[in-house]
Amino acid sequence: MTRLLVGQLRGGKPALAAWLGADQRQRAIPFYVWDEEADFILSSMARGPICGLDQTFIAAAHVHLDEIARLTRSARARAIATAMAAEARADLMGFLGKVDMARLTALRTAMAKGDPAIPLTEQLIESTLIYAPFTRDDGGSAYAGNLRRETMMKVNFLTNLKAASRGGRSPKVLMKFGSNHLARGLSPTHVPSLGSFVAETALGMGKSVFNLRMICGPGTMQMLFDGTPYDCEADEFAPLAVALKPWLLGSGNTLFDMRPLREHPGLWKDWPAEAKEIVWSYDAVVVIGASGPSNFLAPLPKP
């Protein structure tokens, strides 16, 4: 999906908007279906390779299955993938969460060794296993799904880092993820976090990591994947308000450096547990001042 995203953006945001607006792809590349996020990628494209680490998004199953049908050398696999892609189009947010795993296994089995569609097919199977605890009654534990996801991202990180390294020198890396993944220590989902893994990997290379959490402040809006804007202050800022609200700037964004606080725990011993946790989990926090929601590059069709 990252390859598709970057490829479309070489033609500018109008090209990406046109691609997203066709064939029900409006939500296919989280979170870069939003105008402001596309700007972020555009500003980064000239600086080096752009890589994705996460699992297949549930609303993009038809895009992946189309690509599998295009790439595979197996006529049987092509037929299976084409049929499944049609089903995925008819149930964008549901198909990948409930598809029979035996059908995905049959798709993979239909491919001979060396088939170029194998990596994408295996990624689709792994993503389905990650979703299973949250979409199926018999899908296993949420912990197992979260652990699989975090492990996948760690493996993908190392693979992409190795590919981007030249002459024994590794590149400077900028990562943009949900805060659960880039927390240090155990993530809020209780699995060893990607953020800790990256920090320890950097330590072994003689490098350092700085992690910054961005939080919705008072009056900040967020856009959901169903196109609903909402005030996100209650989700993120409310548990931290006792600690941070007295120090917010009158307007704009406020940056809090967490590192000095670690040396003086007595200053924040009465903070709520969630506020204490951010001191250890992030080097700094930005509370976003009043801001509007992101805008879909290709507006969602009306229900």
Total DSSP helices: 14
Query: What is the string of helix and strand elements?
Result: HHHHHHHHHHHEEEHHEHE
Q: Span from first to last CA?
A: 26 Å
Helicity range of the residues?
40-55%
Radius of gyration: 21 Å
Strand order of the largest sheet: 1-5-4
Structural commentary:
The radius of gyration is 21 Å and the shape is globular. Among the domains are: 83 residues, no CATH class; 77 residues, no CATH class. Helices cover 46% and strands 7% of the residues. Helix 8 packs antiparallel against helix 9. A three-stranded mixed sheet has the order 1-5-4. Strands 2-3 form a two-stranded antiparallel sheet. The protein contains 14 helices and five strands. By secondary structure, it is mainly alpha-helical.
Give the SSE layout.
Blueprint (H helix, E strand, L loop, with lengths): L1 H8 L3 H9 L13 H10 L16 H11 L3 H16 L4 H4 L2 H9 L8 H18 L6 H23 L14 H4 L11 H11 L7 E5 L4 E3 L5 E3 L1 H4 L4 H4 L9 E4 L15 H9 L2 E5 L15
Parallel strand pairs: 1-5
Antiparallel strand pairs: 2-3, 4-5
Helix pairs in contact: 4-5, 4-8, 5-7, 7-8, 8-9
What's a concise summary of this model?
With 303 residues, this protein is mostly helical. The protein has helices spanning 2-9, 13-21, 35-44, 61-71, 75-90, 95-98, 101-109, 118-135, 142-164, 179-182, 194-204, 233-236, 241-244, 273-281; strands spanning 212-216, 221-223, 229-231, 254-257, 284-288. Among the domains are: 58-140, no CATH class; 212-288, no CATH class.
